[in-house]
Specification:
With 285 residues, this protein is an alpha+beta fold. It is built from seven helices and eleven strands.
């Protein structure tokens, strides 16, 4: 699928979305309002085979989408798809006011896409976690009130958690905030008998046996010959990369450094600030 830039990440909050009536979310229980909701829609838009003119060609256009949106990144769910990709199907196959049924709704991307396109939606899933996410995904919020609540929460917890993410930029020596730290499994190379991280291994292509497909393998970064297998004996995890943000005018600049960074100063800062911070955190009761 082709990717496009996120041009309107606030659309979910700025476009009118029908409000979910009280009682229409039933968690992991049968929904007592489902039949009445469907029957009401059928009364409003009854099906008449004599006059029905629904005859649409298959959707055969390239889908332009991106995962880099506030709506997509609102929560994690292993199988979700970008809502704006689903909207293109909704727009093609249905009309405003139609009822869209998703009996395996997951985190609610289809229901959300339907609402944003002016359709109605029924979302069903066996997982109560999925229906809970879907319900809140599809519930309009007061953006001003949400922002105020978030700032109040941030102010309350900042004294307790800010120190967990503090570091310094090795380029400017300015204070920075850690976005994430990557840990890697440690293995011992059978050939050079040195312990190395899977993160540092060299990726190579190995020819398949007896005409099989080539496959990717990891080679020891020291001897560059021995294959390192994730099934081998493990020797713990170690931090190998830190990604952090540094204020840059009205924006924030994302920078990375590694435990074996070619930049000497980056390595020194990794040891002095990142490893020291992790050790400090680990020592806390």
């Amino acid at each position: 699928m082709a990717k496009k830039k996120d041009t309107n990440t606030q659309e979910l909050f700025t476009k009118a979305v029908p409000k979910m009536p009280e009682g229409y979310y039933s968690g992991d229980k049968p929904n007592p309002n489902l039949r009445a909701f469907a029957e009401q829609h059928l009364r409003e838009k009854p099906y008449d085979p004599a006059t029905d003119d629904y005859d649409l060609p298959a959707f055969d256009k390239p889908i332009e989408t991106t995962k880099a949106t506030s709506i997509y990144n609102m929560h994690a769910y292993w199988s979700k798809k970008p809502h704006d990709a689903i909207r293109q199907y909704i727009r093609h196959y249905t009309r405003p006011g139609d009822l869209v049924l998703d009996p395996f709704c997951g985190s609610g991307g289809t229901a959300l896409a339907a609402l944003m396109e002016g359709r109605k939606a029924i979302a069903i899933d066996r997982s109560p976690a999925a229906t809970f996410i879907t319900k809140n995904y599809c519930t309009p919020v007061d953006v001003v009130a949400l922002d105020a609540a978030f700032k109040k929460l941030l102010a309350a917890v900042s004294p307790e958690i800010d120190w967990l993410y503090e570091t310094r930029c090795h380029l400017t020596d300015k204070p920075a905030t850690v976005s994430y730290t990557v840990f890697s499994q440690v293995f011992e190379c059978p050939r050079c008998v040195q312990r190395i991280t899977l993160f540092d291994c060299i990726e190579s292509i190995e020819e398949g046996e007896e005409g099989g497909k080539p496959r990717k393998v990891k080679l020891c970064p020291l001897c560059k010959k021995e294959k390192i297998r994730s099934q081998s004996e493990k020797h713990g995890y170690v931090p190998v990369l830190v990604s952090y943000n540094v204020p840059d005018g009205n924006r924030r600049r994302r920078i990375e450094r590694r435990h074996n960074d070619p930049d000497k100063k980056a390595r020194e800062y990794f040891q002095k600030y990142d490893l020291a911070k992790l050790n400090d955190i680990a020592s806390k009761p």
